[in-house]
Structures
1.
Amino acid sequence: MTLPKFLIDYSHKIGESESRAHYMTPIFQAQCYAWLERLVRAKRVLEVGVYLGFSSMVWSFAVGTDGIVTGLEYDPKYVQLAGQAFEEYGVKNCEIVLGDAAKT
């Protein structure tokens, strides 16, 4: 499954600028997410751990505008950075819940 250019660009941006880029989902795995969504036709995704929002954005692309992605993130810094990325790239169907995943 081919990912749109903006996702590839965002992945590269993270890889070049973040010391913890290894936390991010690799491109091949992201392509598998999109393929898996097409296989099961998911419209709701729950993601535990959002980091900078790349995989949430991949799921957003995969489920389409009529789907929803909910991310659970413990660190307010990553909630803010992922939210900024969603806004910058026009991602509208992702929401992030701040807090301990076991309690949210």
2.
Amino acid sequence: MKTQIIKAVILTAAIIMAFGFSVSKNNFGSNEWKTPPEADKLVNPLKGKGAATEEGKKLFTQLCAMCHGEKGKGDGAAGLLLNPRPANYTLPKTQLQSDGVLFWKMSEGRPPMAGYKTILTETQRWQLVNYLRTFNRNKK
């Protein structure tokens, strides 16, 4: 697992370096991230499991906070120059997305965000979804 996390951090840093200064809205069309209908039908097998949420928090701190910020507001130092900006998980528009859509987005990615399908296990990605849901309660 540590090797996978190190690879993910290196991959994320490389993507930020490659796209951070040159990605613009015009390169990728609309900032709206459209997902296929089947993404909405994915069911979170770990929903409501506290231990999974705690594991998700660890993963978020290691892999996601650099861009999405410690409190999930999309204000991490590495994400400030990205376009589109990292998602703010405290906003209703993000929290209203289904678990399946959030899972699909982190699995597939889109520039400048890396896809984590080959870096994290399915379980780890669902753990992250669980943790993202905690930002709905922590808007402060």
3.
Amino acid sequence: MRKPQGYATIIEPGMATQELDTMSCAHCNAITHIKAGERPEDMGGLCKCCMGLICAKCVEKPCTPLLKSIEAEEARAEVLRSYGF
């Protein structure tokens, strides 16, 4: 990947230390480890609506960026509070 968003070092007893680039899904914020030379299509894909990298779980789902879903939950909570719930 050309511009990874993060970096992970995985240390397990009895195993070799792994150093991997990471990216977070634009829809669900899941962290995905990227192997050297892996294409975005192999990791999940690129959402054409929000132009963000997405994980394999979110490929078939509609575009709902994380920030929009958080704002929708906050608006719902505000409405429920105004009704006294």
